[in-house]
Amino acid sequence: MIREAIDGENPDRLYTVTGGRSRADENAFDLVTLIVSESDPAPGMQSEHAAILRMCRTPVAVVELAAELKLPVSVVKILLCDLLDTGRIAARHPSASVVRTPLPHPEILKQVLVGLKKL
Amino acid sequence: MDSRSSEVAVQAPPRSRAPLASTVNDALKIVIVGGFGVGKTTMVRAVSEIRPLSTEETMTGAGIGIDDTGGVREKTTTTVAFDFGRISLNERMVLYLFGAPGQERFWFLWDRLFAGTLGAVVLVDTRRVADSWYAIDRLEHHGMPFIVARNNFGEPEHTLPQLREALSLSDDVPLIDCDARHRASSKSVLIALVNHLYALSTARETSP
Ligand SMILES: Nc1nc2c(ncn2[C@@H]2O[C@H](COP(=O)(O)OP(=O)(O)OP(=O)(O)O)[C@@H](O)[C@H]2O)c(=O)[nH]1
Ligand SMILES: [Mg+2]
């Protein structure tokens, strides 16, 4: 049911999911910020919030949540803001040495190479 | 409003894949960009520890290059779909690989989606080289380091130096052959990119 509504881009559906808010604080989450639950779903909780808490018992990136919930990334970010504000999730952001512009620290890249070579 | 709203129980979707280790705390991004059907998803699948997933991002309103001078701002929406996979690098780091279409509207969302990306692979199908020009131009514009990989769609008609010339690619951008269907080949593309990034990064560290 939910799937259908969302696949069909039903605007009412998205409105309901987000409580009508149109945007989250854009800087609060990266596509690959890792989300970890800090609590179990509570009875009566909005179902999307509960689904996120169940999925994030181990770390899950924002973009994976969006794919699995079949919701646009921006909608998922709004849901995550709610959960972050109420202390139900923790967010592990990409570290400064990774997102450093224009290039990550060489030490980081060395670790990436080691990881890739083991593939 | 739709009454089916949030009371409907959303099952946590089946996670048909390896969960990340609980110790992972740093996620990195690499983007594979290229024209329609060039092998982006194939390359992601070849190296990913999960089956490729897809999602989309929507952007509404200003910032899509619409004219803002009229009285009523037109509401414009652009939606970009992309797919991705991931590779756990060690107990703390995971690398996400995104397959992204290089079409024009995609680049409006670049900063929003791919700020902080390590680097990019431009996949080229030599039967449609022109598709890659735009992607290369945009990556240069965004100051995003990249390499170019020519996908193996049969015996190539041109040498790599000829392709480099056709792409007006400067000599310091690596250009290699690959077959996206093979894990070892796709892996070596990623290694070539990260080697390139490493060289650029160490050069910066040591330059005055
Ligand atoms: N011969 C050959 N075929 C390939 C290679 N890479 C991909 N293909 C095939 O090309 C077709 C398209 O590959 P995809 O990975 O779906 O391409 P894509 O870039 O994700 O396509 P879109 O997302 O539709 O733009 C598939 O049938 C692949 O099996 C390659 O290196 N060599
Ligand atoms: Mg694809």
Describe the structure.
Chain B: Belongs to the GPN-loop GTPase family. Chain B: Pfam families: ATP_bind_1 (PF03029). Chain B: Keywords: GTP-binding, Hydrolase, Nucleotide-binding. Chain B: This is Putative GTPase. The complex is a heterodimer of chains A (119) and B (208). Chain A has helices at 2-7, 11-18, 47-55, 62-69, 73-85, 96-99, 106-117; strands at residues 34-37, 60-61, 89-92. Chain A is 50% helix and 8% strand. Chain A starts with a helix and ends with a helix. Chain A has one domain (11-117): Arc Repressor Mutant, subunit A, CATH 1.10.10. Chain A has 119 residues and is mainly alpha-helical. Chain B has five helices and seven strands; from the N terminus they run E-H-E-E-E-H-E-H-E-H-E-H. In chain B, helix 3 links the parallel strand 5 and strand 6. Chain B has a single domain, classed as Rossmann fold. The chains are: A mainly alpha (119), B alpha/beta (208). Chains A and B meet through helix 2, helix 3, strand 2, helix 4 and helix 7 of A and strand 1, strand 2, strand 3, strand 4 and helix 2 of B. Bound molecules: guanosine-5'-triphosphate (GTP) and magnesium ion.
Topology:
The complex is a heterodimer of chains A (119) and B (208).
Chain A: H1 2-7, H2 11-18, E1 34-37, H3 47-55, E2 60-61, H4 62-69, H5 73-85, E3 89-92, H6 96-99, H7 106-117
Antiparallel strand pairs in A: 1-2, 1-3
Chain B: E1 26-34, H1 40-47, E2 53-60, E3 77-88, E4 93-101, H2 110-114, E5 119-124, H3 130-141, E6 146-151, H4 160-166, E7 175-178, H5 183-206
Parallel strand pairs in B: 1-4, 1-5, 5-6, 6-7
Antiparallel strand pairs in B: 2-3, 3-4
Magnesium ion binds at residues 40-41, 83, 99 of chain B.
